[in-house]
Automatic annotation (TrEMBL):
Organism classification: Bacteria, Pseudomonadati, Pseudomonadota, Betaproteobacteria, Rhodocyclales
InterPro entries linked: GcvT/YgfZ_C, TrmE/GcvT-like, YgfZ/GCV_T_CS, YgfZ/GcvT
Cross-referenced SUPFAM superfamilies: Aminomethyltransferase beta-barrel domain (SSF101790), Folate-binding domain (SSF103025)
Protein name: Glycine cleavage T-protein (Aminomethyl transferase)
Any one Gene Ontology BP term: iron-sulfur cluster assembly
Protein keywords: Transferase, Transit peptide
PANTHER family linked to this entry: TRANSFERASE CAF17, MITOCHONDRIAL-RELATED
Species whose genome carries this gene: Aromatoleum aromaticum (strain DSM 19018 / LMG 30748 / EbN1) (Azoarcus sp. (strain EbN1))
GO terms of molecular function: transferase activity
């Protein structure tokens, strides 16, 4: 349902009220602005309120070992300036959540798709037991903003923020954290009360406001998947290229699903990988939609992970599929008679 008033799920009304005054419509899946999204103009540097993401704070002296024992990446050895992709998996090695994690003075921050947060917080809390750690939904206190584009670093600097020199690392300016995801994409985390002023400063520094679709397109082009409810428990980490983007440590100890993830890495050839594709026509497809190829007939050959409108028309998507179907190049959405997918480059090489 679309609304120009705060949804009951939005608790930080100061921030959302400001965005509505800026011409935003807040929807169940994200945000859009009255003007066409500048993020669909390739040359634009955009600032995007990331209301489609949620944040959990893990605080306490046991935060690092607690998270280390649950996630696919090495939390214990994460530096004070560090940030990392990581995942929380089922015992069968299927991803329950893709997470951006960074270190803080009193613990860690975890960013994931907002539709996963309530169930994920409940599930993680079940593991706390005697650990000296407290987990909490921090969405009412912290706003998340994405800045994307070839001049994103310069825009952040002109807005008065310290910019990380390398990815993935973070810098802190006052109460504001800036996390560099890659050359062109940054996530900013700051107190809700400071978000309107910071948003205005980024616009004054040369960014253009844009909606969720612009950030989704940036992440699709970066080859960074976001697990949402429709794709939970569908993929082992390597199917999402997660070891390529630095989301898996193969040197750390056990965690839920670790045996499956390790076996996938070291035994046999991985049968599925994630690819970037274009869908030229039709209605906007949804995450979790099946793709089909002649080699598999009426059986699904894979699924869409994330989808975004493309400035060239149609849609761009990340899709996990059988590698031999991708190599053959004849893959269709929805059925063998559905729109044919064309394959686009990822910013990294597949093994």
């Amino acid at each position: 349902m679309n609304t120009n008033s705060t949804n009951t799920t939005w608790t930080h009304s100061t921030w959302t009220d400001f965005l509505i005054a800026e011409g935003a419509t807040i929807e169940s899946t994200g945000i859009r602005f009255d003007a066409p999204d500048a993020g669909l103009t390739p040359a634009a540097t955009v600032v995007v309120p990331l209301v489609n993401l949620g944040i959990i704070r893990s605080r306490g002296e046991d935060s690092a070992p607690f998270l280390h024992n649950l996630f696919s990446n090495d939390v214990k050895n994460l530096s004070a300036e560090g940030a990392q992709w990581t995942s929380f998996n089922s015992p069968k090695g299927r991803m329950l959540a893709s997470i951006l994690l960074w270190k803080e003075a009193d613990g860690h921050a975890l960013v994931m798709s907002a539709d996963l947060l309530p169930a994920l917080l409940k599930k993680l809390s079940m593991y706390v037991l005697r650990s000296k750690v407290k987990l909490a939904d921090d969405g009412a206190e912290t706003a998340l903003v994405g800045v994307s584009g070839s001049e994103a670093g310069q825009v952040l600097a002109r807005a008065g923020l310290a910019v990380p020199a390398a990815a993935p690392t973070q810098t802190v300016t006052g109460d504001t954290r800036c996390i560099r995801l890659d050359d062109n994409n940054f996530l900013v985390a700051l107190p809700v009360g400071e978000a309107p002023q910071a948003f205005g400063a980024l616009l004054a520094a040369g960014a253009t406001k844009a909606g969720t679709a612009a950030w989704q397109l940036a992440m699709v082009r970066a080859g960074v998947p976001l697990i949402t409810v429709p794709t939970q428990e569908e993929f082992v980490a390597q199917m999402l290229n997660y070891e390529i983007i630095g989301g898996v440590s193969f040197q750390k100890g056990c965690y839920p699903g670790q045996e499956i993830v390790a076996r996938t890495q070291y035994l046999g050839k991985l049968k599925k990988r994630m690819y970037r594709v274009r869908i030229a026509d039709g209605a906007e497809p949804l995450p979790g939609a099946d793709v089909f190829a002649p080699e598999f007939g009426d059986q699904s050959a894979g699924k869409l992970v994330n989808v975004a409108p493309s400035p060239e028309g149609g849609f761009e998507a990340l899709a996990v599929m059988q590698t031999r179907c991708a190599e053959a190049g004849d893959v269709h959405l929805g059925s063998l008679a559905g729109p044919r997918l064309s394959f686009l480059d990822l910013p990294y090489a597949l093994p």
